[in-house]
Amino acid sequence: MLSVVRVHLPSEIPIVGCEITPYVLLRLPTGVVSTDDVSEAAPADGYFMRYRIQSDRKVAICSVHPMEQATIQCLGCVKSKIPVAKSYHCSAKCFSDAWQHHRVLHERASSALNENGAEEEELFGRFGSTGSGVLSTTGSGSMSNLGQSPGLNNGPVPLYPSGTDKNSGETWYEVGRTRTYTPTADDIGHVLRFECVSVDAEKKVPVGPPTSIMTSRVIPAPTPTPRRLIQVNGDVLSHLDLDSQTSFGTFSVLSYNILADAYATSDAYSYCPTWALSWTYRRQNLMREIIGYHADIICLQEVQLNHFEDFFSPELDKHGYQALYKKRTTEVYTGAPHAIDGCATFFRRDKFSHVKKYEVEFNKAAQSLTDAIIPSTQRRVALSRLIKDNVALIAVLEAKFGNHGTDNPGKRQLLCVANTHVNVHQDLKDVKLWEVQTLLKGLEKIAVSADIPMLVCGDFNSVPGSSPHGLLAMGKVDQLHPDLAIDPLGILRPASKLTHQLPLVSAYSSFARMVGVGYDLEHQRRRMDPATNEPLFTNCTRDFTGTVDYIFYTGRE
């Protein structure tokens, strides 16, 4: 027989708009324990699972027709302290038809209190003169319209009570019949209850009692404060209208490490509530924020393969973006294949077309390096230090906008966009610098071959003043830089080779050179480090606050 071993929720606190899918552990008829669902369409040895989601929104039901929701209430019952469940009716006709019996309740209640004529008049004197006992719906005050409940979350499912409290007349009611449910604004402040039960596929009847689990009360999704962007254009300051198209001949770029779900654990972020770490909550906020920037080019890091395929690519496609992706390599990675993360680059189809894609696998570069300079007896140790599964995604795009072609109609306006995540431990400063240098050398070859401007975006896990940041921003590393003291493999020697010829400029350093006044400008300047011309932070957690994310672009030589 099919049975439920255990049920639990990914988060006890449900959030409006965030899909909830309970974790259900099943024991199949074969004895195997599995988390795979067993649907009615594909039963297991004659059994399947049935799900139901209920809400404790207090819904009154008719005292005469218990399968119907009440729409009116007799206030006479309320005043005479008759059990409230008996005061509810589904329609005026229902109340009229039941009046003779219902009137007896009033009389008994009145007799039990006292034989007071005035009170009798209070209870019954407001009915119409027809003798039918039907409550007036417009001004008698003796009937309360209860209104209709909102529709179901999962389509046109009849609203049937799921368990009525005989004393209160109020009940849980069904809001869904699937394993997954997305709370709505109507659920705010209410508890949800998930039920699952094994069902005989032939008889269509449950086998044994249902297993249920309840959530905390549903809360609304927090609304983050919108960011005000400042457009950097020489010495001219203007505000970027996020609802408008970018100007003729210009484009915008976004780089964002979104934190892969595999890394968003309670162990790593114990100070965050579990619901805030759940992917169903985070993904909707990420998408809302990303779309809100209206960037022409989007570079994302730590994008899980399954999330790229199932969420980011199709969702951003709806907004006019074409997608490119490169997952990390797997020589070190030991997790689930679908959960491996990588770099994703998106660009607006109406602004750019895809010309070419390059993939950089630093593991391969490490293998070539060790073969060339490391003695064979030391290569295994060297590779264990160098191989980190990191990658870079390089896309060559052709612009569809701007004034290119005016001077040289046959010349294409190309752009090279590099997107990377240098995910290397802070202690391995030599490896981090080597990866950045390897990327820049590859970009140099592309730039020379095509005379093409560059965008270098990503999470470099390197703070301003570090050797990787210096190499990117200055084109070289000071040979006395303390980072160079850590080089057990000799991969950074001689230090004079740590250079490149790309005239890269940090996007934020451009802002620091702007002149002008204004609230937004001064407000942003207070968030900048005057010593480095970089932000005070791009990453803020309990254990670390600092700048590690950058956008570099080809400046004027």
UniProtKB/TrEMBL annotation:
Enzyme class, first EC level, given as a word: hydrolase
Residue stretches making up the Endonuclease/exonuclease/phosphatase domain: 254-555
Keyword set, alphabetical order: Cytoplasm, Hydrolase, Magnesium, Metal-binding, Nuclease, Nucleus, Repeat, RNA-binding, Transcription, Transcription regulation
Cofactor(s) needed: Mg(2+)
Gene3D superfamilies from the UniProt entry: Endonuclease/exonuclease/phosphatase (3.60.10.10)
Location within or outside the cell: Cytoplasm; Nucleus
Membrane-crossing residue ranges in chain numbering: none
Signal sequence residues: none
Catalytic reactions on record: Exonucleolytic cleavage of poly(A) to 5'-AMP
Pfam families, per the entry: Exo_endo_phos
A single Gene Ontology CC term: nucleus
EC number: 3.1.13.4
Molecular function terms from GO: metal ion binding; poly(A)-specific ribonuclease activity; RNA binding
Superkingdom, taxonomy of origin: Eukaryota
Predominant place of localization: cytoplasm
Subunit note: Component of the CCR4-NOT complex, at least composed of CRR4 and CAF1 proteins.
Similarity comment: Belongs to the CCR4/nocturin family.
Function: Acts as a catalytic component of the CCR4-NOT core complex, which in the nucleus seems to be a general transcription factor, and in the cytoplasm the major mRNA deadenylase involved in mRNA turnover.
Name of the featured protein: poly(A)-specific ribonuclease
Upper taxonomic lineage: Eukaryota, Viridiplantae, Streptophyta, Embryophyta, Tracheophyta
